[in-house]
């Protein structure tokens, strides 16, 4: 008996509610809860993070769409209205992060908070949201890897039937890359929880650690997928990317690509890792990260404490 999940959770008259939306909404709320709980340690009001979420989510969606369309411009240039039909698919996580970070930076500065301090608090929320959000791909049977055998899923990976059966798409079983990335992000979440309690951690470094961890996992998992945004690079450059991914060949075969020879997410991941490491070292050497993660967070827009002196 196959365990196949209907992408539609329920309908209310003409309104159709999909599991994908429920999962993404749940991811956002859990991310908000994590930020609010950590924010209490620094006496940051919950309303600050609620407003940040309301600003960040639409900004992330817009950024994700712009990023995807920019790299798939040939598919949209003759029908510009298609750009706005986001329900037809076509968003990219790195674009979402860019959109959310830009909007978040502006909002934090307006509230008088240092960007790096708030970004550190939000880092576990980001990776938790991605961990949960990937299950929306599971429901929609999308963002999967290349073909595999049923035996690989059931006997080698020991996956339960409700996952294995959902990976049977159009007569073929596929790599559950959503699951690989979700599990990687779970480990990353635990790592961030551990790091933020360490005395050596400076302001901004938890945020950088999130990007390093996520990008490492995304680099290797992306190589299994068959729907990657890609471009055609010189063969020597493609060989470097393939060489970095080659340890995966011990267990896996790379996913096929319809065009290009370098996956954009893999390249972006490498650049982010290099940039994050350089920034951590540079900020320490230049004294730009003198504050520790555990230091108090004070808004420059906060009202000064009331005087206790007698009139």
TrEMBL record:
<feature type="binding site">
    <location>
        <position position="134"/>
    </location>
    <ligand>
        <name>a 1,2-diacyl-sn-glycero-3-phospho-(1'-sn-glycerol)</name>
    </ligand>
</feature>
<feature type="transmembrane region" description="Helical">
    <location>
        <begin position="233"/>
        <end position="252"/>
    </location>
</feature>
<keyword id="KW-0812">Transmembrane</keyword>
<comment type="similarity">
    <text>Belongs to the Lgt family.</text>
</comment>
<keyword id="KW-1003">Cell membrane</keyword>
<dbReference type="GO" id="GO:0008961">
    <property type="term" value="F:phosphatidylglycerol-prolipoprotein diacylglyceryl transferase activity"/>
</dbReference>
<dbReference type="GO" id="GO:0042158">
    <property type="term" value="P:lipoprotein biosynthetic process"/>
</dbReference>
<keyword id="KW-0808">Transferase</keyword>
<keyword id="KW-0328">Glycosyltransferase</keyword>
<keyword id="KW-1133">Transmembrane helix</keyword>
<dbReference type="GO" id="GO:0005886">
    <property type="term" value="C:plasma membrane"/>
</dbReference>
<protein>
    <recommendedName>
        <fullName>Phosphatidylglycerol--prolipoprotein diacylglyceryl transferase</fullName>
        <ecNumber>2.5.1.145</ecNumber>
    </recommendedName>
</protein>
<comment type="function">
    <text>Catalyzes the transfer of the diacylglyceryl group from phosphatidylglycerol to the sulfhydryl group of the N-terminal cysteine of a prolipoprotein, the first step in the formation of mature lipoproteins.</text>
</comment>
<feature type="transmembrane region" description="Helical">
    <location>
        <begin position="264"/>
        <end position="282"/>
    </location>
</feature>
<comment type="pathway">
    <text>Protein modification; lipoprotein biosynthesis (diacylglyceryl transfer).</text>
</comment>
<feature type="transmembrane region" description="Helical">
    <location>
        <begin position="177"/>
        <end position="195"/>
    </location>
</feature>
<feature type="transmembrane region" description="Helical">
    <location>
        <begin position="91"/>
        <end position="108"/>
    </location>
</feature>
<dbReference type="InterPro" id="IPR001640">
    <property type="entry name" value="Lgt"/>
</dbReference>
<feature type="transmembrane region" description="Helical">
    <location>
        <begin position="201"/>
        <end position="221"/>
    </location>
</feature>
<dbReference type="Pfam" id="PF01790">
    <property type="entry name" value="LGT"/>
</dbReference>
<feature type="transmembrane region" description="Helical">
    <location>
        <begin position="48"/>
        <end position="71"/>
    </location>
</feature>
<feature type="transmembrane region" description="Helical">
    <location>
        <begin position="17"/>
        <end position="36"/>
    </location>
</feature>
<keyword id="KW-0472">Membrane</keyword>
